[in-house]
Write a structure and sequence with these properties.
The structure holds two protein chains of two kinds. By secondary structure, chain A is α/β, with parallel strands linked by helices. Chain A is about 35% helix and about 30% strand. In chain B, a hairpin with a 2-residue loop joins strand 3 and strand 4 (about 120-125). Classes of the chains: A alpha/beta, B alpha+beta.
Chain lengths: ~240, ~425
């Protein structure tokens, strides 16, 4: 699903150039649930941005669903983002003057889906995250956990190949975090490929594989025994 | 661009930025409002001044004589110059190529006119048939003087609308007899004149009759001509000027007047005046458009400014939209549509308010020089087109800025 070879990325900071990614080799196959860990400055956000076609690498290759992602113009990049990727952000990034339902329907709007079909699909995904009753509410009428659920529903709405989550639990307390992770695990159970950037150990261990980044290179990449949120609740 | 959703988005963002939107709309509103009022008044001035000219034909040349002020060829100053039939006939022959209408006039300033006990004092003018066209008069009923009247020195009179109102009230004056200075004349026509009441308070009789009843012999008081108009206005003005000079020089030569005596002969060239006034009107109208467009530009810059703020405030949202797959064009469309909508909506309100105000005050304006200040359909359409172009211009810069927002940077904004 994702295939990265010898990825380099540096940022220019005035006269200095900051080498953030120093040769990343990394593959993710379909249905995986991968946590990308690392301290701040390790390059994990940069990697996620490149994976999300929000940024482009200087060197190396990136294949997403067997499509080479390179030198895309804005138009094609937007199309690929819409087709391949669903984003979940730490700060939710819902559009605050649109109802939960309209937020979820937005990617479909940009796909050119007709209104009634769009609303039906959006409601389906909102129902999936357990918020069908909150469809007409504005984001500021929802709790943090609910907002993140809406954001997840929005990320799923365009039925992307990969779900990219950047610190999805960073702004939530631990109970809500676990609830959100439970939802993400369920989505993964259905076969969706998921990448999560996090710096929290317990969240990382709820994934099936942990990739550890340090100073722009992968220092550890290993499969782990997934901790199911459900089993925690039963204890 | 015309999908329901895009309109919903506009209204949502407008609600979100209520104050900014309202302020912008006010500035655009006043831009268009002021433009409409200015253009309305400039067309009112144009109409007013033009109607002032229309009381006579615009290509008219009038010739009067007065007293000499300079000694010439041994003749003393203060000598009265009298025009006679032979002056008129001489000019008719000499300039016949370029003359359209011609008349000589013998008039009295005031004369008593009586109809069945109703008495009024009016100006009496003896003239030729062409007088009707030179004075720009329209027959309300009956006819004007004809050549037969002139040849047979008939005692017929053509009265102005005002005289008809004064003396005849509702009765039909055609065929009735009126007494002018004690002599019976038959009324054969009633005329109206764009110059209004003052110009309609005159009685016209055949020139020959006037010379006879006033014991004037072959004396005439003034001459009036209109110049053949060519299609080129400037050419016509030049011809008219040349003729005016010709008339003046000929009279000076024939009556032994010093060439630099400026009060003995007065030749009044309406076309030359008209050219000056039309030039002035055009200048006024340009200035008004300039000021009006200036105010619109100020309004449009306001819209642009607000849209830049809107884009800045929505940086993160635009970033999110892009991450969700929004194409750059859809972002440009979103901002542009909003800018055009704000300008067009506020502009139309301004247009309607301006037109409404003009309609309201136009009957109250009682000035000879401003008539019915209004905005015609064409001007309104031009304003609308200006608005839409202005709106797109106002939206363009902010829209480009929005489209160039990089999602990754936008998402970093907290």
């Amino acid at each position: 699903m994702i295939e990265i070879k010898d990825l380099h990325k540096s940022y220019k900071m005035g006269t200095n150039s900051l080498h953030v990614l120093k040769g990343i080799n990394f593959e993710v196959s379909e249905g995986e649930m991968v946590a990308i860990m690392g301290s701040s400055g390790s390059g994990k956000s940069t990697l996620l941005n490149i994976l999300g076609i929000l940024d482009e690498a200087d060197k190396g290759s990136y294949h997403l669903d067997e499509t080479l992602i390179k030198n895309l113009n804005e138009k094609v990049a937007a199309k690929y983002r819409n087709k391949f990727l669903g984003f979940v952000f730490q700060s939710f990034n819902l559009i605050n003057y649109k109802s939960a339902l309209d937020n979820v329907a937005l990617p479909l709007y940009y796909q050119g889906v007709k209104r009634n079909v769009r609303m039906e699909k959006a409601l389906h995904y909102l129902n999936k995250v357990g918020l069908a009753d909150w469809a007409s509410h504005l984001p500021n009428e929802l709790s943090g956990g609910q907002k993140q659920r809406v954001a997840i529903a929005r990320a799923l709405a365009s039925n992307p190949k990969v779900l990219l989550a950047d610190e999805p639990t960073g702004a939530l307390d631990s109970i809500t975090s676990y609830e959100v992770m439970e939802l993400i695990q369920e989505i993964n159970d259905e076969g969706k490929t998921i990448l999560i950037v996090t710096h929290e150990d317990d969240i990382a261990h709820m994934c099936k594989r942990i990739v550890n980044l340090k100073d722009g290179i992968i220092i550890d990449d290993s499969l782990v025994d997934q901790v199911r949120v459900k089993s925690l609740e039963n204890v | 661009m015309f999908r329901i959703e895009s309109w919903q988005e506009i209204f949502e963002t407008m609600q979100k930025n209520k104050l900014q939107t309202a302020l912008t709309m006010i500035s655009v509103f006043f831009g268009i409002f002021i433009l409409v009022i200015l253009v309305g008044f400039s067309s009112g001035i144009e109409k007013g001044v033009k109607s002032q000219f229309e009381e006579d034909a615009t290509n008219r040349i009038a010739i009067r004589t007065g007293r000499t002020t300079k000694e010439y060829k041994g003749l003393n100053p203060g000598r009265r110059i009298q025009l006679r039939n032979k002056d008129y006939e001489g000019f008719n022959e000499k300039y016949k190529e370029n003359i359209e209408y011609k008349t000589s006039v013998f008039s009295t300033w005031g004369g008593q006119v009586v109809y069945k006990g109703e008495i009024g004092n009016y100006r009496i003018e003896g003239a030729y048939p062409d007088q009707q066209f030179i004075e720009n008069q329209r027959m309300v009923s009956g006819r004007f003087i004809n050549n037969n009247d002139i040849n047979e020195t008939k005692k017929v009179a053509i009265i102005g609308n005002q005289i008809k109102e004064d003396l005849f009230k509702k009765k039909n004056p055609i065929g009735a007899y009126i007494e002018i200075l004690g002599i019976n004349f038959q009324v054969v026509g009633v005329y109206s004149d764009p110059g209004g009441k003052r110009e309609e308070s005159r009685v016209f009789i055949p020139l020959t009759t006037a010379q006879q009843v006033f014991n004037a012999g072959d004396k005439v008081r003034s001459l009036a001509y209109t110049v053949n108009m060519s299609d080129n206005f400037d050419e016509a003005v030049a011809l008219s000027l040349a003729m005016s000079e010709g008339f003046e020089n000929d009279i000076k030569a024939n009556h032994s007047i010093s060439p630099d005596d400026r009060s003995a002969v007065r030749v009044n060239n309406t076309l030359e005046e008209a050219k000056k006034i039309y030039g002035l009107i055009a200048t006024i109208s340009y200035i008004f458009w300039f000021v009006g467009i200036g105010t619109i530009i100020a309004g449009v810059v306001g819209v642009s400014n607000i849209m830049i703020i809107v884009v800045k405030e929505r940086t993160k949202e635009i970033g999110v939209r892009k991450a969700l797959g929004a194409l750059p064009n859809s972002i440009i469309g979103m901002i542009l549509q909003e800018a055009v909508f704000i300008t067009a909506f506020a502009g139309f309100l301004g247009l309607f308010a301006g037109v409404a105000l003009l309609e309201l005050i136009s009957p109250m304006i009682d000035s000879d020089y401003i008539k019915a200040p209004q905005v015609d359909f064409k001007t309104a359409m031009i304003t609308v087109i200006i608005l839409i172009i202005a709106g797109s211009l106002a939206g363009f810069v902010p829209a480009r800025r929005a489209a160039n927002i990089r999602p990754i940077e936008a998402l970093r904004v907290e």
